[in-house]
Amino acid sequence: MPMPAYPETSAGLRDGKEKLRLWLKLLDCTHLIERQLRGRFRADFDITLPRFDVLAALDRFPEGLTMGGLSRRLRVSQGNVTGVVERLLKEGEIRRWNPPGDRRTFYIALTEQGQRNFDRMAAAHQAWIDELLGGLAVQEISQLQALLSRAKASVEAKEKSHGDA
Amino acid sequence: MPMPAYPETSAGLRDGKEKLRLWLKLLDCTHLIERQLRGRFRADFDITLPRFDVLAALDRFPEGLTMGGLSRRLRVSQGNVTGVVERLLKEGEIRRWNPPGDRRTFYIALTEQGQRNFDRMAAAHQAWIDELLGGLAVQEISQLQALLSRAKASVEAKEKSHGDA
DNA sequence: TCGATATATTTTAAGCTTAAAATATATCGA
DNA sequence: TCGATATATTTTAAGCTTAAAATATATCGA
Q1: Are the Cβ atoms of A21 and B131 closer than 8 angstroms?
Q2: Which band of pLDDT confidence, cut at 50, 70 and 90, is reported for residue B16?
Q3: How many other CB atoms are found less than 10 A from the CB of residue A86?
Q4: pTM score
Q5: A53-81 pLDDT tens trace
Q6: Chain A partners within 8 Å of B136 (Cβ)
Q7: What are phi and psi for residue B15, nearest 5 degrees?
Q8: Is residue A33 within 8 Å of B23, Cβ to Cβ?
């Protein structure tokens, strides 16, 4: 008796594009949610997503983050943070200083004003996410969380073997 | 005997931020993969992600897509597609025409050259995704796919109730 | 101690992205 | 038929993003 060409056939389509489809759906979900958030942040707080992301990163590091640390955390280029940080400095949401002993390095952190504004925005942000993902059961949330961790680990393993930082 | 304050306590942390954490992980995974793909597309084909995305959308519609249809499919603004399409036209990857009877509307589709180039790039793209997500089991892939569909449905339901297109 | 090398950041040039206004064409309804 | 309204797209102004080059400072090793 011949073996079936595709042993996993019962689980669904078996044309070898399952991972590609998964990636496309991941991307689509992200874009969908990002679009919602962008519009709401703009309407309610007149702030962009990239600026909020910087404030959120700094909120987790009250002692401050370097430009490079911020860039790695947000997974954006170094030159990128330069510009966004510049605007947030001008608006008084963050402050910047050199650590003693290294004049190349800059640290940035939230100002009091920035912390106050971030706290308000973060509360709204969480409420929006709760609303948008409200259709998922507690169990689904935790399953997704675990599976995405697995996906992340897979990508990071390949990333290293490829030689990029 | 008092009821526990958080009935689902056994499933993990119960501070009400599970959905937020899930969203942050989703975003992180997406950025991680996007960064890999961007670098590889650039190195191997000297093309940007947005341009590839347009070609991929057109590949699925050999009869052509309107500017608006493309914009909705890619979840980007209308003005955005104008620019990317312009560059692809100049490079000869796509062609554009008015449908008979409506001079407001433009259709675009791949040229032969565009189709040829897309086919090569799509093969590489699929191989990269297969590699990056290679650490996931077949079952995990299909679970993720199903859960992300659920997430997407949840967001789309809220989107409608909020009044945005 | 001082040239070579490494590290941290900014600058540059090009392209991507958005929201809102502007333009052009089509359709609807008296 | 023709003004009002709707639809499809482009333009505009501002900001975001990248990769690579440039700048500035620190560290290493003879």
Answers
A1: no
A2: confident
A3: 11
A4: 0.88
A5: 999 999 999 999 999 999 999 999 999 99
A6: 19, 147, 150-151, 154
A7: -110, 10
A8: yes
